[in-house]
Amino acid sequence: MSTTKAKVAEQEPLFGKKEKALLRDPLLDNNPITVQVLGVCSALAVTSLVYPSLVMAVAVVFVTAASNLVTSLLRNTIPKAVRLIVQLVIIATLVTLVNEALKAVNFPIYKQLSVYIGLIITNCIVMGRLEAFAMANKPWRSFLDGIGNGLGYGLILVAVGFVRELFGKGSLFAGSPIAIQIIGPGENYLIDTATTGQWGNTFFGWYANNNLMVMSVAAMFVIAVMIWWQRARNPKLVDIS
Amino acid sequence: MGDFINIFIKSAFIENMILAYFLGMCSFLAVSKSLSTAFGLGLAVIFVLGITMPINWLINEYLLVNFELEFLRFIIFIAVIASMVQLVEMVVEKFSPGLYAALGIFLPLITVNCAILGGSLFMVSREYNLGESVAFGLGGGFGWFLAIIAIAAIRERIRYSNVPPALRGLGMAFLLTGLMGLAFLSLSGIDPAVFGGWSPAK
């Protein structure tokens, strides 16, 4: 009788409160980039356009989720002394898979991302989650944690890409099938700032693209503003250092 | 010799690892709170980059390309880097226990410092030869070192300034890195070829 009761208590719901928190927390209050400060490295240089950021985000979600799952399955068999090497091999294998798949599926974007896909291996967020979570938790939760952190990372990436492409180039999703030209000189833009007589010229004739946004340093400023906004809303996140 | 100096100057100043490519940002942001730790980590990065680059070049040229095993590149490179970092860690622990204690977790984390792996991957994609890759490793490491001690010095001072609370720490570090990146952009006009004519033999 008591054993069955214990069994019922042990059975956890597939999508309980904790599982939802695992997915939700990394999106805002425990964001990998703006709060944990992990994984800033390999991403900032790809965010000048939305489309490569999106591809990068998908690649990172896959790698964090799959590596968390694999590591969590193996966690009791990995000797502590060599765990870093084992983790690196797992990550490197998964990244190699992503790299080869991307090369086969979409070569132009593969060229554009160049070394940055390979640099997912050294993306601290992947390794950080393995160390902090997957080594001590069950596979299903580790998998969710990987998805959550990958999404939190991708969210910032795409947001930065959105701001930089919109204000730097006046377009969105350039290079993808759903590319739109938002604002700029010429008839193929939604808001045409050059042709006289168009409403775009009347109201936005003064508008020019901000060339700073195209440069890689702009990513730093955009993320700094995001951190500022987030910490102003939630003073608990402020660190004094 | 001219080529060597060209690539050194270019990778240290004009195409700085941190300020132009944002490689190694994690440890850059985390360790740049005090100047002395930043100094130690910078030296370690120069050392590891300078060693792993030629080793990875040799492996890539004679093993991977020769036997068409390029798809194993990531795994091999990261294995070489991990073992080199282990070596550096043992040396530092033996000769400078103070620095070892100060670097703490960040010494093993050099393994996952994007600057190291990124350097090796850039070396492959730019098709450097052995001498050039040594220059690129040392120059890139030196540039990384310069950037981290510069930002650490600024962050030590800015602690006494009246920064808005929400920007303190991380936010300021991002802004400062961006501003430093802008400053380094102005070096991009330099033609490294002007150093090419110089050689110690003449």
From TrEMBL, chain A:
The alphabetized UniProt keywords are: Cell inner membrane, Cell membrane, Ion transport, Membrane, NAD, Sodium, Sodium transport, Translocase, Transmembrane, Transmembrane helix, Transport, Ubiquinone
Q: Which residues cross the membrane?
A: 54-74, 81-101, 113-130, 142-163, 212-229
Pfam short name (any one): Rnf-Nqr
| EC number annotated for this UniProt entry | 7.2.1.1
- Chief subcellular site? membrane
Location relative to the cell = Cell membrane; Endomembrane system
NCBIfam families with a match to the protein in the record: nqrD (TIGR01939), PRK09292.1 (NF006777)
Function (record text)? NQR complex catalyzes the reduction of ubiquinone-1 to ubiquinol by two successive reactions, coupled with the transport of Na(+) ions from the cytoplasm to the periplasm. NqrA to NqrE are probably involved in the second step, the conversion of ubisemiquinone to ubiquinol.
Q: How does it assemble?
A: Composed of six subunits; NqrA, NqrB, NqrC, NqrD, NqrE and NqrF.
Q: What is this protein called?
A: Na(+)-translocating NADH-quinone reductase subunit D
TrEMBL record, chain B:
Supply one GO CC term from the record: Gram-negative-bacterium-type cell wall
Q: Which domain of life is it from?
A: Bacteria
Family classification: Belongs to the NqrDE/RnfAE family.
One GO BP on record is: sodium ion transport
What job does this protein perform? Answer: NQR complex catalyzes the reduction of ubiquinone-1 to ubiquinol by two successive reactions, coupled with the transport of Na(+) ions from the cytoplasm to the periplasm. NqrA to NqrE are probably involved in the second step, the conversion of ubisemiquinone to ubiquinol.
Catalytic activity annotated for this protein? a ubiquinone + n Na(+)(in) + NADH + H(+) = a ubiquinol + n Na(+)(out) + NAD(+)
The UniProt transmembrane annotation reads: 12-31, 38-59, 71-92, 99-122, 134-154, 166-190
Record text on subunit structure and interactions: Composed of six subunits; NqrA, NqrB, NqrC, NqrD, NqrE and NqrF.
| EC nos | 7.2.1.1
The name this protein carries in UniProt is: Na(+)-translocating NADH-quinone reductase subunit E
User: What UniProt keywords are attached to this protein's entry?
Assistant: Cell inner membrane, Cell membrane, Ion transport, Membrane, NAD, Sodium, Sodium transport, Translocase, Transmembrane, Transmembrane helix, Transport, Ubiquinone
Q: Give the location in the cell.
A: Cell membrane; Endomembrane system
What Gene Ontology molecular function terms does this protein carry?
Answer: oxidoreductase activity, acting on NAD(P)H, quinone or similar compound as acceptor
Extract the Pfam families matched here.
Rnf-Nqr
Location, primary (coarse class):
membrane
The protein's matches in PANTHER family, at most eight in alphabetical order, are given as: INTEGRAL MEMBRANE PROTEIN OF SOXR-REDUCING COMPLEX, NA(+)-TRANSLOCATING NADH-QUINONE REDUCTASE SUBUNIT E
Per the record, membrane topology reads: Multi-pass membrane protein
